[in-house]
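User: Second chain of the day. Same drill as before.
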Amino acid sequence: MLHKLAWLGLPLFALVSFAAENSTDHLIQEALKSSPLENNLRRLTDEIGGRVPGTPAMQRAVDWGVAAFKEKRAPHFTGQWP
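Assistant: Same format as last time:
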């Protein structure tokens, strides 16, 4: 009986190992893709500029951030924390 279970477990182990390897490869490939981070940082620093609280530049930064989140359909919150 144990011998039969070992033979059943071997293909399952190979399948799990293959899936894990593919997940790792996929994760690495995603990490190596270009990111919008550099462009976002450039826009915030060069186009919007300093963001002193209560200034129009701060409001532009908030508006830009909210628009970016909405474009990606990501959850977002603006306002006072409870």
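The chain is about 70% helix and 0% strand.

User: Great, on to the next one.
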